[in-house]
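Researcher: Dear colleague, please comment on this protein.
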Amino acid sequence: MKKFKTAAMAATAFACLATTAVAAEKAECKLVRMSDLGWTDIALTNTTAELILKALGYEVQQSLLALNVTFDSLKNDDMDVFLGNWRPVQDLDYKAYFDSGAVVPLTTNLTGAKYTLAVPQYVADAGLKSFDDLQKFADKLDHKIYGIEPGSNKPLLDMIAAKTHGLDGDWQVVESSEAAMLAQVQRAVAAKDFIVFLGWQPHPMNVNMEMTYLAGGDAEFGPDFGGATVRTIARGTYPQDCPNVTQFFTNLVFDIDYENTGMNMIMTDGLEVPAAATKMMRDNPRKVEEWLKGVSTIDGKPGFDAVKSALEIE
């Protein structure tokens, strides 16, 4: 009888501790703060994560930030997670954040990506096929390279400042946003004007227009036309602070076809981002199941069951 009472007391104590642990995690981790650079791929992946996390009982805050502000926000514990750590292009400028432990990688969420300068096919056909050809077409290009938001164009700014690839004259990087850059490209293509811009894969631009990636940009963007992987990263203590959410983000891995299809729904078909993200999950239930292995709701219930029910996944 004494042994039974002791065991019962121990079980009660463990249950109380477990309840306290869940409550403590709720207080610290219920709000998940995610950085958004204004890129369509991150909009798709962030919103996918947001829909799942809300179904699990979390709250999500997405903030539109420049890349450098994203890293500083992670370092200062003002942001929790970022799904757009493109490598190797971000490795050099942000190495210190990883070396210090202020920012930690959780997983590689995409392989087979690329990220470098590109031109419409008719510009390549005219002879502009590499970084070393830029100067020859400087006048036709109006000495302009079209980039995206500030903080993401540093390799190009450094290239112009150092006058590498024979660049000479008053070259400039036009910094704006993904949407503004693509609108400028579309206007140029319609008029058959010369333009050079920052291109990447995955993105519907690769299927919606004929384009060529420029060779010779290894120093700026890495080999294989800026061949890249994309990582999910977090503030330094997040894995210890929020293990359940961390497990989810560690599982959350995409592929090129998935992202191209989802982004095309948004940019070509005109679906709102949540609708596209939801449709992609309903069309790929096995992926969702993989993403939720070992993940629970915020109150400890099976994660996949909750998400399946909330998002009507068959």
In short: The first helix runs from residue 2 to 29.
